Amino acid sequence: MRNVNQRPLMCQVGILIAMSIVFLLPQIIGRGMILGSDVVFHFNRFYETSQQIKEGNFQYFLSIYGFQQSGRIVNALYGPFFAYFQGLLVLLSHSWYQYQLLSNGLLYLLSGLSMFGLLRKLNVNGWLATAMGVFYMSTYSVQYWIERQGFSAWGAAVLPLCLIPLIALGQEKKLRPFAVGVSVAVLFQIHVFSSIMLVLMYVPFFLRAFFGGEGAQAKKQLLWKLSGAIGLFLLLTANIWLGMADLYLHNQLLAPFINHNMQNNTITGTSSYWWSTPILLPLVCGLFFCGELKVWPKLAGDMKLLTWVAAIFFVLATNFIPWTWLGSLDNGLINLIQFPFRFFVPATVLIIAGLCLLAPYYRGQQLVKPIWVIALVVLSSGQVLIQTTNKMLDWRSDEAAVTLRNHTYLGTDSAAELKAAYFSTDKSLALDLYQRSTPDYVPIYQETTENKYDAYGKQIIEGNNTVVKSVEDGKLTLRWQGDSADWVQVPIINYRYTELTLNQTSLTRDDIQLSTIGVVTLQQRIGANVLVVDYDAPWYFDGALWLTMAAWLLLPIGYAGWWWHCQKNK
């Protein structure tokens, strides 16, 4: 009997796996790359971790393989553990083309299974959950990585799973500390801003449970469990928040791109493709909100709250919010948002889930018949296939491999050579031929009006032509010939705890000069010069890093103990 009951589940998961492959077919058949605006940045991040794994040279902070081997810090501030996972995918792939197929396929599957898992936990019919899982794959929340290598798509892929703890919080007013702590930690390890939005989604449900509790004891219990969830989160993410705290306390780091025109990057602005991918998404949103209003008096409190939260995130993604004025305030928290269309990701998840929960209220009516769900999935999937096919046609017909943008450096005049590099087994080749100056997180030593992108391009990318870089004994090493005992600038970035050893002599801060973005100038000698670059993290960080890794490894044991405790106290 159990095997019979498992057949629908196996079929449903099989459909999600099959659709993940189907969405890849245009790129498999067309044998082309999709090189979006963030491809250089993330390919460098993952090449860095892949080489560290391959060669066994683990350097948590400095970039010793990627980012022009500049010694800059990126991954430590941007999902370090997940970067190593992506690096493993790069290592398993023979070329960037194979990596893109592998990562895209995993993203499709993860997002589909994630939405399917959330909807099944909400007791949504398995076939409807499957259909909505496929539909979610087609939304721009997921396509953002496929088309532009926007990394928030990986956060969007696991967001539905991370919302499962909200079910108990909303329906039973119970907070499950293990589930909440792990959910927020997982998202924090992948994409920090996505985890912030997840917490914002939890807040109204927690407040409802807290103020709607039965008494002081219930409130005390809720606060105690919240403390447990926060403690678990801090343990599972100590490597990130402690690393961030140390770096920002001892360095003035250049913030990532600050968007002073946020009003453009909304779903009602120039980023309307978030709203129209798939093209039937506006209809889905309209059906949800209109359907909710029609049966509003019949809805349970948690369903009403879900609607309000979805509406708030939806509005935040539009120009109904005065983003022009907010962007002019130069506020750190507002600058963190960068692109208001990010708020459309949680809105999309909640709208899809809410629409499925709304279906029983309209049972027997025309719009909830399976034929319309099938049509929705077929049309949305077809749009994804057409869009990817068009990109493959562009790859073959357009002579240029990439669209030239500001601060772009091409190492070849041959488009064919650049295209071929993404199919080469030497993955460093593509990174050398197509470079962009993105100075995120470099240290700032002087407040000047100098363009930091231009400075990085001149001092690091162009400066690499003057030295030979390699990794020796796990440390970044620079070699060059000095014609005279003069001061020369070397393409290395110096942070508070960067260690420099020139010709076997340790350099102090007084022995070097630093540019606006921390590029080192030192006194060479005549003849051969060797500079060794390392990073001496504070003693407490190493302990925190090992503790965090141990916590993740022991997590299954902790979960088993928590499950046994729950069963015992039933």
From TrEMBL:
<feature type="transmembrane region" description="Helical">
    <location>
        <begin position="153"/>
        <end position="170"/>
    </location>
</feature>
<feature type="transmembrane region" description="Helical">
    <location>
        <begin position="223"/>
        <end position="244"/>
    </location>
</feature>
<keyword id="KW-1133">Transmembrane helix</keyword>
<feature type="transmembrane region" description="Helical">
    <location>
        <begin position="305"/>
        <end position="323"/>
    </location>
</feature>
<feature type="transmembrane region" description="Helical">
    <location>
        <begin position="73"/>
        <end position="92"/>
    </location>
</feature>
<feature type="transmembrane region" description="Helical">
    <location>
        <begin position="9"/>
        <end position="29"/>
    </location>
</feature>
<feature type="transmembrane region" description="Helical">
    <location>
        <begin position="367"/>
        <end position="386"/>
    </location>
</feature>
<keyword id="KW-0472">Membrane</keyword>
<feature type="transmembrane region" description="Helical">
    <location>
        <begin position="125"/>
        <end position="146"/>
    </location>
</feature>
<keyword id="KW-0812">Transmembrane</keyword>
<protein>
    <recommendedName>
        <fullName>Membrane protein 6-pyruvoyl-tetrahydropterin synthase-related domain-containing protein</fullName>
    </recommendedName>
</protein>
<feature type="transmembrane region" description="Helical">
    <location>
        <begin position="544"/>
        <end position="564"/>
    </location>
</feature>
<feature type="transmembrane region" description="Helical">
    <location>
        <begin position="190"/>
        <end position="211"/>
    </location>
</feature>
<feature type="transmembrane region" description="Helical">
    <location>
        <begin position="273"/>
        <end position="293"/>
    </location>
</feature>
<feature type="transmembrane region" description="Helical">
    <location>
        <begin position="343"/>
        <end position="362"/>
    </location>
</feature>
<feature type="transmembrane region" description="Helical">
    <location>
        <begin position="99"/>
        <end position="119"/>
    </location>
</feature>
